[in-house]
Design a protein that fits this description.
The chain is an alpha/beta fold. Helices cover about 65% and strands about 10% of the residues. Helix 3 packs across helix 6. The chain starts with a helix and ends in a 5-residue tail after the last helix.
């Protein structure tokens, strides 16, 4: 009988360790990581996904398991250890002290095993090896959940009713996505720990910064704009095209406040090779004009919508303040590009 009790004692401590490890592992594991593992076809990934997408239910299962094993240890552990100690102490101490001291030692021993072996050690392992532990415990906890579902349903329902009285929501209804600041912190931690390289870190940081930019902050100022003049001779404009070697040029009348369109140099040279007396005005295409206060993200959408490679920016008085190309926008994310 004593041997059976000792075996049951070991089993209860192991069960406590299992439920504690399960609880901390499934909380620690990120949902995005689980989705990635499922897409990779990892064994048991589906089981882990089932558990992590129903945290409220499976955490209740863990709590129920921990409570049951704790009750079992309290009921079985102290008497079993006391029975082991009683004969030894009986030969060393007077009878009145034997029961008290054996009880105290048994209580301390069971408490130590329960806290250290059953809770603290598995908790630490689960936190540090959340993914490996989750794969190991997923199927057993699903099995336990199905067996104990009526009890879990009653307990969860009662707890849900109670917290609603306090104006709170159940855990499954109160999940929140990461804020931008949280993502920035996660990104920095991933970079510092070597999970992502410097280029990846820079790209994502630039994307966050990109969302706050205005067009005037990345534009080519009007003083730096290289333009073709509609009234100039073909030879003069051709000289500008050859010297500057840009893909596209704005076309103006008398000054840069009077932009009438743009010319694509590839189209120009294809036509010019067949017709040296080409009329430049025939190649002028409409150009997108927007306020220089437009957010860059909105400007990009508008340029994509219209298939435009250049946007002319107008200031508050209607004059030209500068221009933005698709290249300028991309450079804010990937760094300097030379077209």
């Amino acid at each position: 009988m004593l041997t059976v009790n000792l075996f049951m004692l070991i089993l209860l401590i192991a069960a406590t360790a299992f439920f504690v490890a399960t609880e901390f592992a499934i909380i620690r594991l990120r949902g995005s990581r689980v989705d990635q593992l499922v897409m990779e076809g990892r064994k048991n990934a589906r089981a882990v996904q089932i558990v992590t997408t129903n945290l409220d239910g499976y955490l209740s299962a863990c709590q129920l398991g921990i409570t049951l094993t704790a009750l079992g240890l309290g009921w079985l552990g102290e008497p079993t250890v006391e029975r082991l100690l009683h004969p030894l102490l009986h030969s060393l101490l007077p009878e009145p002290f034997v029961t008290v001291i054996s009880f105290a030692i048994a209580f301390a021993a069971i408490t130590f095993l329960h806290v250290v072996v059953g809770e603290l050690a598995p908790k630490t392992v689960a936190i540090q090896k959340a993914e490996a532990v989750s794969f190991f415990v997923a199927r057993p906890i699903i099995f336990f959940y199905k067996i104990m579902y009526p009890f879990i349903w009653v307990l969860n329902g009662s707890a849900g009713w109670l917290i609603r009285l306090w104006g709170l929501k159940p855990a499954k209804d109160s999940e929140e996505a990461h804020t931008e600041e949280e993502l920035r912190i996660i990104l920095t931690e991933s970079y510092e720990s070597g999970k992502i390289n410097q280029s990846e870190y820079g790209y994502v940081k630039n994307i966050f910064h990109f969302d706050d930019l205005l067009a005037r902050e990345i534009m080519v100022p009007r003083t730096d704009m290289v333009c073709l003049y509609k009234e100039d001779s073909l030879e003069k404009n051709l000289k500008v095209i050859k010297e500057e070697q840009y893909t596209r040029f704005p076309v103006v009348l008398e000054n840069k406040d009077q932009i009438v369109g743009m010319v694509n140099t590839k189209e120009f040279f294809l036509k010019y090779s067949d017709n040296p007396n080409l009329d430049l005005t025939q190649l002028i295409r409409p150009v997108l004009t927007v306020s220089d206060a437009i957010p860059v993200k909105n400007l990009l959408k508008e340029m994509q919508k219209r298939g435009s490679q250049i946007a002319i920016l107008a200031d508050e008085y209607g004059g030209t303040s500068g221009m933005v190309t698709i290249e300028d926008i991309l450079e804010e994310i990937v760094g300097e590009i030379r077209d």
